[in-house]
Every structure is written in C-alpha cells, then in structure tokens.
Amino acid sequence: MNHLAPLHCLRSLTAFALLAVAPIASAQPTWGNPSPTAGSETSQKANAAADQTIYQPVVYTNAAKKGPALVVIPGEIKSNNATFLQKFTANNIADFGEIELTSANFSVFERSNLGPLLREFELAYNLGDPDQARKFLGMGKLKTTKYVVKFDVLKTEQVAAAQSGFDGRTIGVMAGILGAFSNSAAGAAAGAVGGTAVGSVQTSESTGVWVIGMRYKIINAETTEQVATGYTEEKMEIGSKSTSALGISQSQQGGVSLDTMVQRLVQKSVWEIDSKYK
User: Fold this and answer.
1) For residue 93, which of 276, 271, 267, 273 has the smallest C-alpha distance?
2) Taking the CA of residue 117 as centre, how many other CA atoms within 13 Å lie in the half-sphere pointing to its CB?
3) Which neighbouring-strand residues pair with 237?
4) pLDDT confidence of 230, banded at 50, 70, 90?
5) Where are the domains of the chain?
6) Can you give the pTM of this predicted structure?
7) Are strands 226-245 and 69-72 parallel, antiparallel or unpaired?
8) Does the domain made of 60-276 have the CATH classification 3.40.50.10610?
9) Do the beta carbons of residue 241 and residue 252 sit within 8 Å?
C-alpha cells in the first residue's frame, strides 16, 4: 500500500488551486459604480466626456535611452488668475514634472528625499546666488546631478467666450394670438396648444476658451548656467448646453480641467526635453 499517495494528491490539489487563483491575484484592481444613475443615458454621456480627461501616458521618443541625473525644483506661477492660484502651487507642477521625467527614463532625485539640502539650493538659486547654489549641488546625492529643471506657468487667461440660445415664449404667445383671431373654435384651440408647445421650448449653449502657457528651463547643475528653455501653449475649452421642451429637460457641461491641462503641458515639455537634451 502506498502511504504517500494521499500526500501526492494533496500537493497536486494545492498546486492546481494556486494556478487557478493566480490570474485573479495578479489582475489589476477594479471598482464598481454605486451611482444610482449608473448605465443610464446621462451616465453614459458624462462618462464619455470624462474619458477624454483621463490621464494618458506619453510614449517618449528616447525612453529606451537612460537620461542623466536631474532635480526638478518648483518653478514660478506668473498668472494672476485667482481660480488657477487657488488650485495650484509650484510644488504641484514640480510633482507632475517628476512623474513625467521618470517615465521618460531620466534619473530623477525626488525632492522629498533630499530634505533641507534642496530647499537651501532653491533659495540660493532664486536669490540669484550661483556660487552658493553650486556649493549645495556638491553635497550628498546632489553630487551626481547634471541638470536642474523647472516648469513655469506664464499664462492662464480666458481668451474667448460665446453664448447662444432660443426662448420660445414670445413665439408661443404670437401663435396663441393668431389662433384666437382665426374666428373658429378649432383654430383658437390649435393656437392655444401650439402656443403652449412652442412657448415651452428653451435652449441655451455657452462656451469658454482658455489659453495656458508653460515654460521649462534646464540649468547646468555644475555651472548654474541655463542650458535650454522652451515654451508651449494649449487651449482649454469649457462648455455647457441645456434644452427644455414640454417639461422635459436635458443639460450637459464639461471640459478639460486645469489639472489635466497642466499635466498635458508638462508632458509636452518633457517630450521636447527627452527628444533634444538627453
């Protein structure tokens, strides 16, 4: 009698179970949608619009080539737009820069890991003291740094707006008056019904277009001299529309957010840095 048979059988069953659950364990996590309107027409329209703003990774031209060591320091925000200044700080934009430069295969020293050393360098650089900045770049991890990169927002302004709409109430009143002067009960009734129907129709549409501009600078970490600079702009459109007729109404609004626009501008800038300065 083979006393090891049950043990072999148990091992086989365990291996089979592990193989069966392996794909599930390694699958990317997913989440459900608890919204009460999930799957409805409004949900589909809203999700289709939101899909256009989801983060899209960029395929950088020279991503296969390892880039030099660099540090991203917070740049300047020269916009006076209150909405933009409420949402963003220079640190937010530098965070986007670190993410994209890492994706482009540069060796990026995270600011959070450099502690007060980097803050002292930023202060020296921003005060226009290159000698002091060079001293800090010779310390610790910063010794291997080749470039210092910064992203500046130079422009955020609404450059255009347009509105259009239709209000059927005036035409509805006119239709009712014409029906009343038709000298027939049927004509008056038809005029009243038509006037009510036309008068209930209301539509409106509005669109605003913003232009956001970003500049990048690449600074030689050893000499603190500017190696390169570049500038790019993108349009951001925000729109809304609504329709109402016979008590039935529909409305939509949306557009690319400021967060998405800033990230896309950083991506365009990093694409240029990756293409030209590796």
Assistant:
1) 267
2) 18
3) 209
4) very high
5) 60-276
6) 0.67
7) unpaired
8) yes
9) yes
